[in-house]
Fold this protein.
Amino acid sequence: MNFLLQLLNGLQIGSIYALVALGYTMVYGIALLINFAHGEIIMIGAYTVVFSIQLIFAGTDIPYVFAIIPTVIICTLVGMLIERLAYKPLRNSPRISNLITAIGVSLLLQNTMMKVFGAQSRSVPKIFDHKPIEVFGANISISTIVTIVVTLVLTISLQIFMKKTKYGKAMVATSEDYGAASLVGINVDSTLTLTFAIGSALAGVASLLYVSSYPQAAPLMGSMLGIKAFTAAVVGGIGLIPGAVLGGLILGILEALTKAFISSRLSDAIVFGLLILVLLIRPGGLLGEDHKEKV
Amino acid sequence: MLLEVNNLNVYYENIHAIKDLSISVKEGETVCLIGANGAGKTTTLQSISGLIPKRSGEVSFSGEDITKMKPHKITRSGVAQVPEGRRVFTNLSVLDNLRLGSFAISDSIENKQKEIEKIYARFPILKERSNQRAGTLSGGEQQMLAIGRALMSRPKLLLLDEPSMGLSPIYVQKIFEVIRALHDDGVTILLVEQNANIALSVADRAYVLETGKIVKSGSSQELLDDPDVKVAYLGA
Ligand SMILES: Nc1ncnc2c1ncn2[C@@H]1O[C@H](COP(=O)(O)OP(=O)(O)OP(=O)(O)O)[C@@H](O)[C@H]1O
Ligand SMILES: [Mg+2]
């Protein structure tokens, strides 16, 4: 039973990694850019959850889960703003400038939040206050179930969007060749902004799901989460949507199992060690090799 | 004039690639730009399409100044380009490549479907390959797809950059049959070619480009008879 429970815990945190990893992977696949500020979107999302509950929902009958609406909106806007202000002016610069800018934006957001809201963490009110459900004798929290289901639904929707819609295909086309894409009339700038918007919206959802189980918002919370999700994207095969999900889930499960059965202190070291091993064997990531298709 | 380029100058950093180039294309004409490797043919077309910035000069299309327009807007205004090296979207199916060709234009789904049928009629092989990834097509098939994709926007002007490059003689024949057919259908074409013989056989007029400068122009017949052109470009 404990194993099942840990597996579900792993799937839960893994789902969150997957949602965040999707943002890294889409931006990398289309803009060829590692958006190190992506983790900070989660942090901004978490603060949005805190403040929208405090300022809007507290004392009303509206369930706190509706904080998802302002959170997704704010995260999406911040993501689009970062793209327009920080990355777009560097579109034709060497990649190293983009990388440095990404790190700069990340630090800027962390420090701004620290300055404005203080370095101490803020606690997030309980979002899902339903009793845990018993499955095969294990008590599973609502937040676990919601996280897994929402991730599944979003991933499938994203995949359908990419494969079936005009704008999804325009994103695939853009990821291959900016010039050829603009020659068929695709606005490459808006496509890139759309990519950031989708990635950031997913991060917004991830941040609400995250604080529903780890109810704290702090200025630096995005960095470790960001690194893990980025690792998940790379392990799955960066640029690949199914890769991000697979990578996220594997990372989450490994982490939960090592924490529970080996050592909670060493879990990060063990997990990252295993992931490095995976990359040594398959440098392109798990799905990265004969599956060349990006995004 | 449908297309008018006046005193165009294009630089790559400090390389002066296009020097005071002026060309024009009338509605319904097929005009050809011939020149050796590195003469600046691709640069000219890409600069007309807005992919490469212009240092100075003007480009007008259908009476509208498109000098500073973004590439996707230029396409939307009716200029389609089949770029050098085809550049089809290899991860998308043949059908999706064609569909993206009409991304720019607002038209009913039925009309777009009709356009696809027309392209399939012109290139039956594309219909057979319709659900295949474009990356798996042969070079000649990709060239047909690239032309089909450009035609999907029902352009007023079609820019073709070395459509014969890397193709076997049979495919070159096929592609030029299509160019002739498009010409007969009244599509205005600006064609870039190194293969001057075949290009001059379809074009009404031509310009000769040497190291970024137009050095000669005239009707195709005049250039076919020109002794310098014969020596330099016709292998005579
Ligand atoms: N991205 C670039 N950076 C620097 N120089 C370039 C670039 N692209 C082209 N050039 C230079 O500009 C000149 C014109 O190149 P362009 O590609 O337009 O020639 P072309 O006539 O199309 O040649 P080809 O027949 O080989 O396709 C060449 O001297 C080329 O080296
Ligand atoms: Mg060329």
Notes: The first helix of chain A runs from residue 2 to 31. Residues 21-222 of chain A form one domain.
